[in-house]
Design a protein that fits this description.
homodimer, alpha/beta, Rossmann fold, 2 domains, 4-stranded parallel sheet, 12 helices, 45% helix, globular
Chain lengths: 271, 271
């Protein structure tokens, strides 16, 4: 039996992590749970985020997952350490993989981070970066308009370019910046527009890609990679309205031909 | 006390891994051991490589290392699983990190691998790549002239360009290739020449950089990162002739100003 990797997110942003997990680990089976009913987690209290996260985790643990990926920056910031301490399976978040990839990539130690207001004010990326190298120059910037824009399906074109360009203006003033972390799992969907605005000389790090890469490394290190030949059937669950969730899921996974033969999309009831 | 990361190699190639470990994990202390006296390991038997590798490991284990990095492709291919099973500390090799980084990087699943004759004929990279994704197109090529050229200090210029260009000719015919793994720890020293030959459209993956990145991830996952403020003093050991080893070490680390205030370079006696 191909034990699944569990992925939790406050909504649809974590689907970019799921997409990368399927791309980089095509033999692995995924169970994704998006708490779309109670999304966004950003403005909620620490206690509420913890409570909701644990409810999602219990739903997945009952499905016998072999690894948990917390694909939500807010949930990672508030609950990752507790989850790591309490669960008997490997648990990884989205913040440290992005930080480590940026440290790997930068040539001059000048790193930018963009994310939601919650993530940026939590300072989680700055802490993760400076814990490893105190000499890094880190410039953080909240881009509160990006998530609503992406959730409305606006990923490119004139309006997207103008929002991205105006939002990133403070970072474009930083001549030395050579690496930029997309510190929100929604942002890989507008990566091209961000790259165009910030310039080709800045390397863009997607937390989603890098989290999938580290999931691969941690599964390999713990000898947990699936070695059989079964074609995985992925399961996607949403706690809220199914139509939007299904549309966004199909949009994100559109390049996988025949993908939806091997996927189920269902409503999850947590309590 | 800042417990060190131990790095073993058959000679000087692993110094590129050590360099990346110090760059990406500047708080960590390193003990490097190069078996320059018995280098190269490539033409040796499986049993001999295992015996020599265990002698190096015992030297480092007596120095109470917290992690072992096997920075030699041959030693990784022959001993990694055994070392992982027997040692109570995390052990990582150079092959899987490069494979995972290439899978992360490629857009069209066409990956090239270059290495020594031993590494290429062992098929270790092809196996590591296909174990994760059986649908990858992998093109391997042995470049036996690169290591002796690098060890003679020839890293760029007309001769290096001609050797690299002639060696890579078969890969340059592969129109679809979008990612190339440097499957030998010497090759990052001629990365610029390789990039120039293979073209800017091919992403080059350095096993050395990616091994350091995964060492960072595995240390973080196991809560083994150093949290103190002591400046690390690195130790470099060679089993053979010290003059060449010292010259190459200084050459590889030359951009670290004041670096040699915090380094010792000594002869190691294994038996």
């Amino acid at each position: 039996m191909n034990q699944a990797i569990g992925v939790i997110d406050s909504g649809v942003g974590g689907l970019t992590v799921a997409h990368e997990l399927i791309r980089q680990l095509p033999k692995e089976r995924l169970i994704y749970l998006g708490d779309t009913q109670r999304c966004p987690y950003g403005p909620r209290s620490n206690e509420e985020v913890k409570k909701f996260t644990w409810e999602m985790v219990e739903f997945l643990v009952r499905k016998n997952i072999k690894m948990l990926v917390v694909a939500c920056n807010t949930a990672t910031a508030f609950t990752l350490n507790e989850l790591k301490d309490c669960l008997p399976i490997p648990v990884i978040g989205v913040i440290k993989p992005g930080a480590r990839a940026a440290i790997n990539e930068t040539k001059n130690n000048h790193i930018g981070v963009i994310g939601t207001e919650g993530t940026i004010s939590s300072n989680a990326y700055v802490t993760a970066l400076k814990d490893i190298n105190a000499d890094l120059h880190v410039q953080s910037l909240a881009c509160p308009l990006f998530v609503p824009m992406v959730e409305h399906g606006c990923l490119s074109g004139e309006y997207a370019e103008s929002v991205v360009s105006n939002s990133l203006f403070p970072l474009k003033q930083q001549q030395d910046l050579d690496t930029l972390i997309l510190g929100c799992t929604h942002y890989p969907l507008i990566k091209n527009t961000i790259q165009q605005t910030i310039g080709e000389n800045v390397s863009i790090i997607s937390s989603s890609k890098e989290t999938a890469r580290e999931a691969s490394a941690i599964l390999g290190f713990n000898d947990l990679l699936y070695k059989g030949d079964e074609t995985p059937i992925h399961q996607f669950y949403s706690t809220g309205e199914m139509e939007v969730f299904t549309r966004i899921t199909k949009g994100i996974f559109k390049e996988f031909i025949d993908y939806f033969d091997s996927v189920t999309i269902e409503k999850a009831v947590l309590r």
